[in-house]
Design brief:
Layout (H helix, E strand, L loop, with lengths): L3 H15 L16 E3 L6 H8 L3 H7 L13 E3 L10 E5 L6 H7 L4 H7 L13 E5 L7 E6 L6 H7 L4 H7 L13 E5 L23 E7 L3 E2 L3 E8 L4 E6 L2 E3 L2 E4 L2 E7 L7 E12 L7 E13 L18 H13 L33 E2 L8 E2 L3 E3 L6 E3 L4 E9 L3 E9 L2 E11 L6 E2 L4 E5 L10 E7 L2 E3 L1 H6 L7
Length: about 475
């Protein structure tokens, strides 16, 4: 029969067992599989989401009885990654990355990258996505990126760069030396890194491109319906750049010293989800001075919903929603903004196009979904409406050149101003127009008066901003400086 002391000792052992719900494995007892070290701020839910596993499987394989007892420094085995060993970490996919470039950057076979991230296709790898890599591969250091030229072999490229061709094969996940094509970007790593080199794991350099391209940015990083995006590419001077986003051709303009900029709108009705960004860059070929090296690159970007509201049903003149009237006028209107002047006329934020008393009065915001005369909500508001009675002043918001001024059925008396680099502003429903095509205007210049002409339910100014031929939220241009970094 147990005495009192034995009972107390037994109770103490039970309490000790239950007070430590996460079992810490000894190194030689830990289950096979990749390991994640718990960081400050982590929760079991966050970790499960990050690695694409269920909480049940995570708790089961790690013998976790109480998720609230997770501690910084705990070693967690991540299930579902058989055959992969090591410590795991996560990084964000930058612009200028592909599954192949990431494989070479982190010295991981493509198959392992796909398995680590539960990807069935490289098309699921979009810019901004968080991916899982092995911690030891984050320490791989990148010393050079260069492109294979036309009619150039791997051996010739290695000789030109005073390197070993077999090192090219191992550093670039190549099965054989012949498995390269013109435009393929080769990575060469140092086996013994020094303190002056950048860690590839921490580098934001576009590793799918050669060293002639030093940076690619998409601002803001997360694309949103109806917003203005600035695509920046930095590198050598004299780069020739073309591109396409959502079937819209990108026009790139040189800022200074090898910096190139394209300003492009995201359509307010585009389907949220992944869409391809395509870039083609050409530059003089070091192998043959009579030729150019051409790099073609495609990367999915994720476009989020703008969360636009639904306006009440609007009752308007039937003529202004008649397709026989709207289609030709829409085509005429769209054509006005298709060309991109090489000169940039504006600098900084746009000023308000209406007097101060009306600057903060908006009957309808950009992007709102609309129904006319009981139609489905298949329309959207292409601009920002300002309050104002007939005769209220309208001002130019920035320097530019007038490209249209005249009457239209749907838009009423309208004016369009070209501000350069593919950026335009438009003014509708005016009672009077005070400018003519070809005329240069300055910020604050009187260009017209508010009216109630065209498809309206009352007098107001409908103001549009176009970027790359697409209407974007004008409010952004009043509070931000494009294309400057904010």
């Amino acid at each position: 029969m147990m005495n009192f002391i034995h009972i107390i000792a037994l109770i103490g052992l039970v309490c000790l067992f239950f007070s430590n719900p996460i079992v810490a494995y000894a190194q030689d007892q830990q289950p096979e599989g990749p390991i994640y070290i718990v960081q400050e701020g982590d929760s079991l839910w966050d970790i499960a989401i990050r690695f694409g596993v269920s909480i049940d499987s995570l708790t089961r394989i790690n013998n976790i009885n109480d998720a609230s007892q997770l501690s910084v420094g705990d070693n967690l085995v991540i299930p579902g990654l058989e055959g992969i060993k090591g410590y795991l970490n996560t990084v964000e996919v930058n612009f200028g990355e592909s599954i192949l470039s990431l494989s070479r950057k982190y010295q991981l076979p493509i198959e392992d990258l796909l398995e680590l991230n539960h990807l069935t296709s490289s098309n699921e790898l979009y810019a901004g996505k968080t991916i899982v890599v092995l911690e030891q591969n984050l320490q791989t250091r990148e010393t050079a990126r260069s492109a294979i030229s036309n009619n150039q072999s791997l051996y010739e490229h290695a000789i030109m760069n005073d390197s070993n061709p077999w090192k090219y094969v191992t550093d670039n996940q190549l099965g054989q030396s012949w498995m390269v094509i013109p435009g393929d970007v080769i990575h060469l790593k140092n086996e013994i890194p020094n303190e002056n080199e950048n860690q590839a794991g921490n580098s934001s350099s576009p590793s799918a491109f050669p060293g002639e391209i030093t940076d690619i940015r998409f601002e803001p990083f997360s694309a949103i319906q109806g917003k203005t995006e600035v695509i920046r590419i930095s590198g050598s001077e004299g780069l020739e750049i073309e591109g396409k986003l959502l079937d819209n051709n990108l026009e790139f303009f040189s800022e200074n010293n090898g910096n190139y900029v394209s300003i492009q709108g995201i359509h307010a009705m585009v389907e949220p989800g992944t869409h391809p960004l395509e870039i083609e860059i050409s530059f003089p070929d070091d192998w043959n001075e009579d030729q150019k090296t051409i790099i073609n690159f495609s990367q999915p970007i994720y476009i989020k919903s703008g969360g636009y509201a639904f306006d009440p049903v609007l009752v308007v003149s039937p003529e202004t929603i008649d397709p026989t009237v709207t289609r030709p006028e829409d085509a005429q209107w769209s054509a006005l903004g298709t060309s991109a002047s090489t000169e940039k006329f504006w600098k900084g934020k746009f000023v308000s196009p209406v007097p101060k008393d009306y600057e903060d009065c908006w009957p309808s915001l950009f992007g709102n979904r609309r129904s006319y005369n009981g139609s489905p909500y298949e329309y959207f508001h292409t601009g920002l409406d300002f309050c104002g009675g007939v005769g209220t002043e309208i001002y130019a918001p920035a320097p530019g050149k007038v490209v249209f001024a005249g009457p239209l059925t749907v838009r009423g008396n309208a004016t369009v101003i070209d501000h350069g680099w593919g950026v335009y502003t438009a003014y509708m429903h005016q009672s009077k127009i005070f400018v003519k095509p070809g005329e240069m205007v300055e910020p604050g210049q009187l260009i017209g008066l508010v009216g109630d002409t065209g498809r309206v339910t009352g007098p107001h100014l409908h103001w549009e901003v176009w970027a790359g031929g697409i209407q974007v939220d004008p409010m952004d241009w009043l509070v931000k400086s494009f294309p400057e970094i904010n």
